[in-house]
Design a protein that fits this description.
- The complex is a heterodimer of chains A (about 130) and B (about 550).
- Chain A is of the alpha/beta class and about 130 residues long.
- Chain A has a single domain, classed as Cobalamin-binding domain (Rossmann fold), CATH 3.40.50.
- Chain A is about 40% helix and about 15% strand.
- In chain A, helix 2 crosses helix 3.
- The termini of chain A are close together.
- The mean pLDDT of chain A is about 95.
- Chain B has a five-stranded parallel β-sheet.
- In chain B, strand 2, helix 3 and strand 3 form a beta-alpha-beta unit.
- Chain B has one domain: TIM Barrel.
- The longest helix of chain B is centred in the last third of the chain and has 23 residues.
- In chain B, helix 20 packs parallel to helix 22.
- The chains are: A alpha/beta (about 130), B alpha/beta (about 550).
- Chains A and B meet through helix 1 and helix 3 of A and helix 4 and helix 18 of B.
Chain lengths: ~130, ~550
């Protein structure tokens, strides 16, 4: 990507979970790190998220899920992205994601899992270093 | 030692670890407090005896000497059968009250088979669609013998109706039932975000429950006015105190607008606070809350009964303070937080389980959390005397300071036109987002220490056993819902829902209509959908 363009990130809250503290803190941190950040707000269905990705064309999508619904929601989001031939967007997930769930999510193309206690700069670095375009 | 040497030693001993000491509300803490810090201190006016106006020292005269707080562990997961088993486990281990956590689809009034419920069934609480699920949830538990707290907000009136009907089926009249519905929609717009309808019709439903319970379910607490979620969303202690009490004033004013007498309903309002890491700050927050509430109810709302002025509260230790790193350390954090709640005079308490930064708590972790309360209650001696910290220069100064800071927020909220206009202007949401960002930055910059997270890290792999929710729960819940829908009298369901909609368009109290629909096994989702047709839904513009 050209050097002038800012990294564009979509921060999303899929599902019914309303715990948006982490998503908001992350959104602000990425913005302060010089990225262009769009926060979807809460209660996003997989379809809502994919539609926003199509409209906004972000470089990275950061999902935040604390309700335990990640195994059900993440694969659906990834499948829908594939249906629209979107394969150059980095998709990471934060929240309460047990280690044993990670292989399944990785199989669906997610990369980057961030739980409680993660330092924000770790996530900023991760986004900078793992973009697919 | 020479005089100059002595001075040098004293100077050295005064070298501080930090430039500035502040609590979690960013209030600067001095090295020492003396009588000069509470110059105009007046015992009768500022504290009063425990159980007497302004209730600073406690809600009741004898406090824990008379009766210990209710040990009430919030619990619910998976199916109604699984949660019923957990309740029996807790009651058998000496728990004295139930506290129901509902599944997110129930909280939003969405049926289990709705696509928006994908992956959510039973994950954060017990899945309830119809009265049938509630009958199973309380099977074998005598509702006239326990008190039950239900953490439910937008659909609170529906779950209360279901509880009353389950009670009826067990042979108990509504006036025998004891418990609480959270029913606090204002903090949903402010912090937890499980709203459905816009603020105005939501407030109507709440006043409907107040009016109904005052007449027919007099032992019920109609709202648990909650700071817990405001704090978890990232507020400071002062913001938690101020925003929660401001919400409380909002409910009092809404009920008074319907010409309800403040002394008829105010004694059945209760509060729910967080207990976070800064020990004295939390204790002083509770003491200040009691005093502010008492003064307002008496001076502004004209309450006459002491019960109306007496703030009672439930406490839960801070979920957000739990760490995924070395989770066993959380047992110690929870112990200190619980002790603060007890020294602050809580009426009931939930202690978090040490594994909750990782999953819903396992049975072993829940047991340790309950044991923590029992050790404080029966072994520590802190329950032997009422409000043992009263008169401490620091505690009284900080209690005053918390009150002052809260009053500043009340003024700002009033300038914005009250709680609902302030919500619509994103005032609370911005204040909380700023506070949580600042807190996180302080941790990242090592200005605040979290043991084993930003200092003293070992980075050992986590070996805590996790509770998994079986995906079968969702399948079974959908099957049960379909079965009920096939077996019930669907004409009757339709009729009761139509009547409810008709009433919603007018100004009648909706609770009897909701009870009629519940009795016919209408689902939470169907009742909410009927009301949505009349009330519409709320939309938030998110700020970060």
């Amino acid at each position: 990507m050209s050097k002038e363009r800012k990294i564009k990130v979509l921060v999303c809250k899929p599902g019914l979970d309303g715990h948006d503290r982490g998503a908001k803190v992350l959104a602000r941190t990425l913005r302060d790190a010089g990225m262009e950040v769009i926060y979807t707000g809460i209660h996003q269905t997989p379809e809502d998220i994919v539609n926003t990705v199509i409209q906004e064309d972000p470089d990275a999508v950061m999902l935040s899920i604390l309700s335990g619904s990640h195994n059900a929601l993440c694969p659906v989001i990834m499948d829908k992205l594939k249906e629209h031939n979107i394969d150059d967007v980095l998709v990471a997930v934060g929240g309460i994601i047990p280690d044993e769930d990670k292989p399944l999510l990785e199989k669906h193309g997610l990369k980057g899992f961030y739980g409680p206690g993660t330092e924000l700069k770790t996530i900023v670095e991760f986004v900078k270093n793992n973009l697919k375009r | 030692m020479t005089e100059s040497k002595e001075k040098e030693v004293e100077k050295e001993s005064r070298i501080k670890r930090r430039k500035k000491f502040t609590n979690l509300s960013d209030i600067e803490i001095k090295e020492i407090y003396t009588e000069n810090d509470i110059e105009n201190f007046n015992y009768a006016q500022d504290l009063g005896s425990p159980g007497h106006y302004p209730f600073t020292r406690g809600a009741y005269p004898t406090m824990y000497r008379g009766q210990l707080w209710t040990m009430r562990q919030f619990s619910g997961f998976g199916s109604a059968e699984q949660t019923n088993n957990r309740y029996k486990f807790l009651l058998n281990h000496g728990q004295t009250g139930l506290s129901v956590a509902f599944s997110l689809h129930t909280i939003y009034g969405i049926e289990a088979d709705n696509e928006r419920a994908l992956g959510e069934i039973g994950k954060e609480g017990v899945s309830i669609d119809t009265l049938k699920d509630m009958e199973i949830l309380f099977d074998g538990i005598d509702l006239s013998k326990i008190s039950t707290s239900m953490t439910i907000n937008a659909p609170a009136s529906i779950l209360l109706a279901m509880y009353i009907v389950v009670g009826e089926k067990q042979g108990h009249t509504p006036d025998q039932l004891r418990g609480t519905i959270q029913n606090d929609i204002l903090k949903e717009y402010i912090a937890q975000k499980s709203w459905i309808f816009p603020p105005e019709p939501s407030m109507r439903l709440i006043v409907d429950t107040i009016e109904y319970c005052t007449k027919y379910v007099p032992q019920w607490y109609t709202i648990s006015i909650s700071g817990y979620h405001i704090r978890e969303a990232g507020s400071t202690a002062v913001q938690e105190l101020a925003f929660t009490l401001a919400d409380g004033f909002g409910y009092v004013e809404a009920a008074m607008e319907r010409d309800l007498n403040v002394d008829d309903f105010a004694p059945r309002l209760s509060f729910f606070f967080n207990s976070h890491n800064n020990f004295f700050e939390e204790i002083c927050k509770y003491r200040a809350a009691r005093r502010i509430w008492a003064k307002r109810l008496k001076n502004k709302y004209g309450a006459k009964k002491p019960e109306s002025m007496r703030l009672r509260f439930h406490t839960q230790t801070a979920g957000v303070s739990l760490t995924a790193q070395e989770p066993e350390n959380n047992i110690v954090r929870v112990t200190l937080q619980a002790l603060a709640a007890v020294l602050g005079g809580t009426q009931s308490l939930h202690t978090n389980s040490f594994d909750e930064a990782l999953c819903l708590p396992t049975e072993n972790a829940v047991k340790i959390a309950l044991r923590t309360q029992q050790v404080i209650a029966h072994e520590s001696g802190v329950t032997d005397t009422v409000d043992p910290l009263a008169g401490s220069y620091y505690v009284e100064w900080l209690t005053n300071k918390m009150e002052e800071e809260a009053e500043k927020y009340f003024e700002r909220i009033e300038e914005l036109g009250g709680v609902i206009p302030a919500i619509k202007a994103n005032f609370f949401q911005k204040e909380i987002a700023n506070a949580s960002y600042k807190y996180q930055k302080e941790i990242e910059n090592q200005e605040r220490t979290i043991v084993a997270v930003n200092q003293f890290q070992l980075r050992e792999p986590c070996t805590t056993p996790l509770l998994k929710i079986d995906e079968e729960v969702a399948k079974q819940q959908i099957e049960r819902l379909n079965k009920i829908k096939a077996e019930r009298n669907n004409d009757k369901v339709k009729e009761t829902l139509e009547k409810l909609k008709g009433a919603a368009k007018g100004t009648e109290n909706l609770i009897p209509y909701i009870m009629d629909a519940v009795r016919e096994y209408a689902s939470v989702g169907e009742i909410i959908d009927a009301l949505k047709e009349v009330f519409g839904t709320y939309h938030e513009d998110s700020v970060f």
